[in-house]
Design brief:
Blueprint (H helix, E strand, L loop, with lengths): L1 E5 L4 H13 L4 E6 L19 E5 L5 H5 L8 E4 L6 H6 L2 H20 L4 E7 L23 H20 L3 E6 L1 E3 L8 H10 L4 E4 L5 E6 H14 L5 E4 L4 E3 H11 L7 E4 L14 H6 L8 H14 L1 H7 L3 H11 L6 E2 L2
Parallel strand pairs: 1-2, 1-4, 2-3, 4-5, 5-6, 6-10, 7-9, 8-12
Antiparallel strand pairs: 9-11, 12-13
Helix pairs in contact: 1-7, 4-5, 6-8
Bound molecules: nicotinamide-adenine-dinucleotide and thymidine-5'-diphosphate (TYD).
Thymidine-5'-diphosphate binds next to helix 6 and strand 8.
Length: about 350
C-alpha cells in the first residue's frame, strides 16, 4: 500500500508513520507537511533514512504542493494536517479555517481528480460539542462544535461527506477522543503539565478543573486508523475512544504524584471561553466493524509518557525554545490572576 500522509511531522501523524513502517513492511509513505510551529522533523528522525519513507515540505492549501505528492499515485490519502489547538483558535481562527477547511477541500479535489482509492479524514470528537454528566457521543450525535477549532474540523467533515455523496469519492472519517503519548507538543494538557511539574513550575488548571476528557494512547489511535483504512466501510464515520474518562484535576494530581512533586504547584486560573464540559466516546462501531480494541492501560501509558519526556531532554529543549516561550507568556499571562490554589 502506498500512503500519502499530510501533517505527518506532528504528534499523531509521526506516531502513525512510525507504526505503519514497523507493522507493514511492504507499505510506503509520502509525508507532506508545512512544518508549522507544531511540525517537527525531529519527531521522525528514526525513520528519515528508511527507503520506504519520503518527506516533502509543503502546504495542503496549495494545489501544486499536493499534486507533487500524487506521482506515483497513492492508494490512499490520510489527512492529519491541521491547526489543532483550541486556545490558539480562540486567539485567531483564520489559520484554522484556511488549513482545516480549505486545505481539506484542496486534498479532496486532488483525490477526486486523481482517482485515489480512499480518503481517510482524521477528525475529532470535538465536532459533537459538549456532553452533560452522562451519555457518550455516537456517530449519529448532532454536530454542535463550540470552539473555532471544532467548527473548522466539523466543516472539513462535512466537505468529506459531500465528496462521497456528490463525486462518489471513497471516504472514511474517524473521530477520536483526546490523545496522549510521546512527541505531543507541550501546549496540550498532559505534556504541558508534566513538563511544568518536572521544572517545579505552576500547573495552570482552567476554571474549576472538573472538565472531563476521554483519553486514549496515541498507539491505540494509530492502530484504529490502520483498521479504518483497511476495513472501514466506504462513507462511514467511526468514533475512536478507550473509555478512559478523567477530570482534568485528577490527571494533574496523578502527574504530580508520578513525578513526586507537591500539589501546591497547582493553580486554578481563568477559564477558557466556551470550554466544553465533558467529552465521552461510544466506540462500539469501531470495535465491532473494524475488529479493533484499545490495548494501552491508562496508568501504564501515562507513566510511559512521563518517562519518554524525561528521557528526551533535547527534544523537549528544542520544542520549548523560541515560539513556545512567546506562546506561553501570551497565553498564560492573560490568565495570571490565580483564582485559588488547592487546599
Ligand atoms: P499537531 O498540531 O501535533 O500536528 C499537525 C501537523 O500538521 C503539524 O506537523 C503541522 O506542521 C501540519 N500542518 C499544519 N498546517 C498545515 C498545512 N497547511 N499544510 C501541511 N501541513 C500542515 O496535531 P495532532 O495532535 O498530531 O493532530 C493530528 C490530527 O488529528 C488533526 O487533524 C487533529 O484535528 C486530529 N485529532 C487530534 C487529537 C488530539 O488529541 N491531538 C484528537 C483527535 C483528532
Ligand atoms: P487540551 O489538551 O487543550 O485539549 P482539548 O481542549 O482539545 O480537549 O485540553 C484538555 C483539557 O485540559 C481541557 O479541558 C482544557 C484543560 N487545560 C487546562 O486546564 N490547562 C491548560 O493549561 C491546558 C492546555 C488545558
Amino acid at each position: 500500500m502506498r500512503l500519502f500522509i499530510t501533517g505527518g511531522a506532528g504528534f499523531i501523524g509521526s506516531n502513525f508513520i512510525r507504526h505503519v513502517l514497523s507493522a507493514h513492511p511492504d507499505w510506503q509513505v509520502v509525508n507532506l507537511d508545512a512544518l508549522t510551529y507544531a511540525g517537527n522533523l525531529g519527531n521522525l528522525e528514526d525513520v528519515s533514512s528508511d527507503g520506504r519513507y519520503r518527506f516533502r515540505k509543503g502546504d495542503i492549501t496549495r494545489p501544486e504542493d499536493v499534486k507533487a505528492c500524487l506521482d506515483p499515485q497513492p492508494d490512499a490519502i490520510v489527512n492529519f494536517a491541521a491547526e489543532s489547538h483550541v486556545d490558539r483558535s480562540i486567539e485567531d481562527a483564520s489559520s484554522f479555517v484556511r488549513t482545516n477547511v480549505m486545505g481539506t477541500q484542496v486534498l479532496l479535489e486532488a483525490a477526486r481528480r486523481h482517482k485515489v482509492d480512499r480518503f481517510l479524514q482524521v477528525s475529532t470528537d470535538e465536532v459533537y460539542g459538549s456532553l452533560g454528566p452522562s451519555g457518550a457521543f455516537r456517530e449519529d450525535s448532532p454536530l454542535q462544535p463550540n470552539s473555532p477549532y471544532a467548527a473548522s474540523k466539523a466543516g472539513a467533515d462535512l466537505l468529506v461527506r459531500s465528496y462521497q455523496e456528490t463525486f462518489k469519492l471513497d471516504t472514511v472519517i474517524t473521530r477520536c477522543s483526546n490523545n496522549y503519548g510521546p512527541y505531543q507538543f507541550p501546549e496540550k494538557l498532559i505534556p504541558l503539565m508534566l513538563l511544568n511539574a518536572l521544572d517545579d513550575k505552576e500547573l495552570p488548571v482552567y476554571g474549576d478543573g472538573l472538565y472531563t476528557r476521554d483519553w486514549i494512547h496515541v498507539d491505540d489511535h494509530c492502530r484504529a486508523l490502520v483498521q479504518a483504512l483497511v476495513k472501514g466501510r466506504s462513507g462511514a464515520v467511526y468514533n475512536i475512544g478507550a473509555e478512559q474518562e478523567e477530570k482534568n484535576i485528577d490527571i494533574v494530581k496523578r502527574i504530580l504524584d508520578e513525578v513526586d512533586k507537591p500539589r501546591s504547584l497547582i493553580r486554578f486560573v481563568k477559564d477558557r471561553p466556551g470550554h466544553d464540559r465533558r467529552y465521552a466516546i461510544d466506540a462500539r462501531r469501531a470495535r465491532t466493524e473494524l475488529d479493533w480494541n484499545p490495548q494501552v492501560d491508562f496508568a501504564q501509558g501515562l507513566r510511559q509518557t512521563i518517562d519518554w519526556y524525561r528521557n528526551n531532554p533535547s527534544w523537549v529543549d528544542q520544542v520549548r525554545s523560541g515560539e513556545y516561550q512567546n506562546y506561553y507568556r501570551r497565553m498564560y499571562d492573560q490568565r495570571d490572576q490565580t483564582l485559588s490554589t488547592l487546599e
